[in-house]
């Protein structure tokens, strides 16, 4: 009896630790929610009512907590216009994720702001919610607009100056012909003076005219130098603007990395607690409760996969290694070793040609091959999967190909598949987050190449990418 009491106390302590872990996890999430520098709006997925809104969103749009909570999306000032907002909400209910760039909103005081709008659906305690992340990109859009205007103005000025330079060049050629003619005339006159000694006055006049021509040439040269200096000045004005854009993009990538990294700890705590519940109460709950716990476990696992993929995507820029001489045959072998279980289970047959040495990041190139071959295995047809990797040198770059005999795709999806979170199939049909090919594109572009796909439905796909040849 004494031993039974002690075990019960130990179980109770474990549950308290789990509850405390959940409380701390919720506190961390709430701190992130309250201090986020993006607006966050939580909607009930069935009714469209606002469940919560963080301080940044309220400050951005000028509405109070009372003006948000309990109201439906289309009843709030920035989203008014019932038909359009209801239609947008219906789309949010169908799609797990939506992304709008440059969505116009109007604040309570009448200001117009442009935002980046990203929505993600999730379930909590059996209820489905939609989280809307709203980032103010008004200044960025304004900067992009200013750059476009400056580029257009610069292009117009360059075209104008080019036409003027061509005209001046034509005049310079004409002047050069005149100079040559004058020089020939001088020679002829000198010969006549030497021979006859009669035309000294005429020769002096010709020399005066030649001096005038020289002065005209000097003026033309000064004008050309001034115009070149003006063009250089305009180019210098664009340098700080481009630098500011590069800094802004780098900050966005760093924010994505930090945010996804910090989310892992509370997510692990939630996953551990849910799995503990699943294990401890196995066989003691009704079917509905088991289903809820199973959904919670699956949701945390999908969220962990998504966070890991986002970290991998951000690390391409934030944790990149310096380029070194890399043997692609070894890179391919490492990728195939990572895919050995999937290859064996699918029965895929993978072949390759001899692959070259390139200058690159071996870790990122391994990920590139692993993602492309992994996709070929995942999207295989009913027939045995055949995958071939090749490389051909064309001028000053290597053309790599990863060809398969899988399900293929329609031409209208050739560019969409390389965008982040873009999926052509449901999660039930094929697992994944839709980030793999976006990672491939970012790796190839970092190596100074380009990537594209050639495919026909039912006939397989060939993913092609280039890497500059090693010098």
| CATH topology-level fold name of the largest domain | Heat Shock Protein 90
Class from helix and strand fractions: alpha+beta
Shape: elongated
The whole-angstrom Rg is 34 Å
Can you identify the CATH class of the largest domain? Answer: Alpha Beta
Strand content: 15-25%
| Fourth-level CATH superfamily of the largest domain | Histidine kinase-like ATPase, C-terminal domain
Number of domains: 3
Largest sheet strand order: 2-1-5-4-3
Share of helix among residues?
55-70%
Largest sheet: 5 strands, antiparallel
Any chance you could write out the topology, listing elements then pairs?
Layout: H1 2-35, E1 39-44, E2 50-53, H2 55-61, H3 65-68, H4 82-94, E3 97-106, E4 112-124, E5 127-136, H5 138-196, H6 200-280, H7 287-318, E6 324-327, H8 328-338, H9 340-346, E7 349-352, E8 357-360, H10 362-378, E9 386-394, E10 397-404, H11 436-446, E11 451-456, E12 460-468
Parallel strand pairs: 7-9
Antiparallel strand pairs: 1-2, 1-5, 3-4, 4-5, 6-8, 9-10, 10-12, 11-12
Helix pairs in contact: 1-6, 5-6, 6-7, 7-11, 8-10, 10-11
How would you portray this structure in words?
- The structure is a single chain.
- This protein has 471 residues and is of the alpha+beta class.
- It has 3 domains: 35-136, Beta-Lactamase, CATH 3.30.450; 141-247; 321-468, Heat Shock Protein 90, CATH 3.30.565.
- The chain has helices at 2-35, 55-61, 65-68, 82-94, 138-196, 200-280, 287-318, 328-338, 340-346, 362-378, 436-446, and strands spanning 39-44, 50-53, 97-106, 112-124, 127-136, 324-327, 349-352, 357-360, 386-394, 397-404, 451-456, 460-468.
- It has a 5-stranded antiparallel β-sheet, sandwiched between helices. Strands 7-9-10-12-11 form a 5-stranded mixed β-sheet. Strands 6-8 form a two-stranded antiparallel ribbon.
- The longest helix is centred in the middle third of the chain and has 81 residues, at 200-280.
């Amino acid at each position: 009896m004494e031993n039974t009491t002690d075990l019960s106390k130990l179980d109770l302590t474990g549950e308290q630790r789990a509850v405390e872990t959940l409380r701390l996890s919720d506190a961390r999430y709430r701190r992130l929610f309250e201090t986020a520098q993006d607006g966050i709006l939580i909607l009930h997925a069935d009714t469209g009512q606002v469940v919560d809104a963080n301080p940044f969103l309220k400050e951005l749009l000028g509405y109070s907590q009372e003006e948000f909570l309990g109201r439906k999306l289309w009843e709030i000032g920035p989203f008014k216009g019932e038909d359009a907002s209801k239609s947008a909400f219906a789309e949010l209910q169908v799609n797990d994720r939506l992304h709008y760039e440059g969505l116009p909103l109007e604040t309570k005081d009448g200001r117009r702001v442009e935002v980046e709008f990203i929505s993600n659906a999730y379930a909590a305690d059996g209820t489905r919610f939609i989280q809307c992340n709203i980032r103010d990109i008004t200044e960025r859009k304004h900067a992009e607009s200013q750059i476009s205007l400056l580029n257009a103005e610069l292009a117009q000025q360059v075209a104008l100056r080019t036409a003027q330079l061509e005209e001046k060049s034509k005049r310079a050629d004409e002047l050069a012909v005149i100079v040559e003619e004058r020089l020939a005339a001088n020679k002829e006159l000198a010969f006549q003076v030497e021979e006859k000694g009669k035309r000294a006055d005429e020769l002096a006049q010709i020399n005066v005219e030649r001096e005038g021509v020289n002065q005209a040439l000097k003026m033309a040269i000064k004008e050309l130098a001034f115009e070149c200096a003006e063009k250089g000045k305009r180019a210098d004005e664009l340098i700080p603007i481009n630098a500011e854009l590069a800094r802004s993009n780098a900050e966005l990538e760093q924010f994505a990395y930090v945010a996804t990294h910090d989310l892992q700890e509370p997510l692990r705590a939630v996953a551990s607690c849910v799995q503990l519940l699943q294990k401890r109460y196995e066989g003691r709950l009704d079917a509905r409760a088991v289903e809820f716990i199973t959904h919670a476990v699956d949701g945390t696992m999908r969220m962990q996969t998504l966070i890991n993929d986002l970290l991998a995507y951000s690390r391409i820029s934030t944790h990149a290694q310096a380029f070194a001489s890399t043997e692609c045959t070894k890179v391919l072998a490492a990728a195939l070793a990572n895919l050995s279980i999937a290859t064996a289970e699918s029965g895929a047959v993978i072949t390759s040609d001899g692959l070259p040495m390139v200058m690159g990041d071996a870790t990122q190139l391994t990920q590139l091959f692993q993602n492309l071959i992994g996709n070929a295995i995942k999207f295989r047809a009913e027939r045995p999967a055949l995958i071939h990797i090749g490389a051909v040198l064309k001028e000053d770059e290597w053309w790599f190909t990863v060809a398969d005999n899988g399900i293929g795709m329609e031409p209208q999806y050739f560019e969409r598949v390389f965008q982040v979170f873009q999926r052509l199939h449901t999660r039930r049909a094929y697992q994944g987050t839709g980030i793999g090919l976006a990672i491939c594109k970012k790796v190839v572009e970092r190596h100074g190449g380009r990537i594209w796909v050639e495919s026909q439905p039912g006939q397989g796909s060939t993913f092609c990418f280039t890497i500059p040849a090693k010098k």
